[in-house]
Amino acid sequence: MLPAVAGVATAFDVSATTATWIATAPSVAMVPVTVLTGMIAGRRLRYRPLVLTATALYVLAGVLPVLIDSFWLLVATRVLWGAATGVLLTAANNLLVLAGGDAARRAQLFSRANIVFCLGSIVSLVVGGRLATISWSAPMWGHLVGLPVLVVLALWLREPAAQAAAGPRGERARIPGAAYVPMVTFALVVMCVYPVSTLMSVVFEQAGLGDAGSVGLVGSLLTVTGLLVAPAFGLLFARLGSTVLAWSALVCGLGLATVFLATPTGAGSMALYIVGIVLTGAGLITATVGLPVITSTLVPPSASGVAQGMVAASLNVGGLLSTGYVALVVPWFGAGVSVRPVYLLSAVLAAALAVGLLVVQATGAARRRSRAGREEPRAEPVVRTVTPGTE
Fold first, then answer.
1. pLDDT tens digits along 269-284
2. With contact defined as beta carbons under 8 Å apart, do 193 and 252 qualify?
3. Is residue 204 within 8 Å of residue 114, measured between CB atoms?
4. Among 39, 140, 249, 374, which is 20 to 30 Å from 3 by CA?
């Protein structure tokens, strides 16, 4: 739907910022659905029927907008689509964690999964952008791709072992407080980055960079970059560890600053804009792959399902916050017209989040080392045994 935002605004006679609801409305459903899915998948509901049902709903809700003639009904169908997608995102993350292995192995699995995700995103943005030049509703037919996926899942998806899915009996599903820090940071980074996608068609018009077809082509660079970065995530995680999220946020900040510089009204630079998109995409994809891996190292097995549900929710919370964020920033800094100032503020916020997270992680590591030093057992005193008559 991203390439069609400007077309929806025109077709339904709503403002550009209001039209972004078609891109962010799915988050309204995804936030509670992802958390709920994490709580019940593998415990109260089996993965196989849950995933099959969600895939069918994904297709139905995705195609339904072609019959809609009311903007807010359109938003409602997007909410329904978001619920289905939320189930699929959480189930996918949980199944990857349940595949087993150490953090390095999970990093490899999540990087491979994101390669597949990036490929799908590239195709959908390019094809969707071209279809959006026909009409705002034409991209909706692309959701029919879920039908062959549904057949594949019905044939080959198997239920994971019950014990692995639910965790050891009697173990409480408690998430440590430290796990919430990267989740909150990631959600705020997504809030900063999301306007690059949701406002791209508007920015292209204001900066004179191109039409909806160009939006789809250039927008695909966000995921093309991810396609190149994701395979290297294992090496990045091995070198940077949990700080990979902070460094990803900093790269996002650099990308957002570049996008700001590239989009003056009526005189945009496509070359500089592409550099900004590539940097932003590299940071976002690395953070997206890194968060579930980092979280899996911070929570016990019994809480992994709930934690991965919250990981998926953090992505959607960020997307949902971005709508209000844009609506607040544009009137203040863009005189109600230009959306460009959003990117400058986002760059500053992303950099601040990166520095803050690095400080928190360094402080936490220092405390753990200090605690480990205090708890280190003291050496027993050497007792000299004296044999009578040898003094």
1. 888 999 999 999 899 9
2. yes
3. no
4. 249
Cβ neighbourhood burial of 385 (10 Å; 0-12, 13-18, 19+): exposed
Please report the sign of the dihedral spanned by the C-alpha atoms of residue 357, residue 362, residue 365, residue 367.
negative
Which two tokens mark 230? Answer: 């994701």
pLDDT confidence bin for 386, thresholds 50/70/90: very low
Task: List the alpha helices (DSSP H) in 299-340.
Answer: 304-333
What is residue 41's three-state secondary structure?
strand
Residue 335, phi-psi category: left (phi > 0), alpha (psi -120 to 50), beta (remainder): left
For residue 224 the two structure tokens come to: 């093309």
Buried-exposed string 239-269: b where 16+ CB fall within 10 A, e elsewhere? eeebbbbbbbbbbbbbbbbbbbbbbeeeebb
pTM for this predicted structure:
0.72
Residue of 319, 327, 287, 284 whose CA lies nearest to 29:
319
Is the predicted pLDDT of residue 387 greater than 50, yes or no?
no
DSSP string of 207-233? HT---HHHHHHHHTHHHHHHHHHGGGH
- SS3 category, 375: helix
Asked whether 313 and 186 are in contact (CB, 8 A), the reply is no
Lowest mean pLDDT among 170-179, 252-261, 277-286, 311-320: 170-179
Q: Specify whether the CB–CB gap between 357 and 182 falls below 8 A.
A: yes
Cα separations in angstroms, 250 against 77, 133, 199, 313:
35, 35, 21, 22
Please check the confidence at residue 170 and state whether its pLDDT lies above 50: no
The two tokens of residue 322 are 């971005």
User: Of the ranges 104-108, 222-226, 348-352, which one carries the lowest mean pLDDT score?
Assistant: 222-226
Question: Left, alpha or beta for 336 (phi > 0: left; psi -120 to 50: alpha)?
Answer: left
**Which has the minimum average pLDDT: 161-170, 252-261, 381-390?**
381-390
For the chain, helix (H) and strand (E) counts, in that order, are 17, 0
262, 269 in Cβ contact below 8 A?
yes
The dihedral of CA 135, 137, 139, 142: what is its sign?
negative
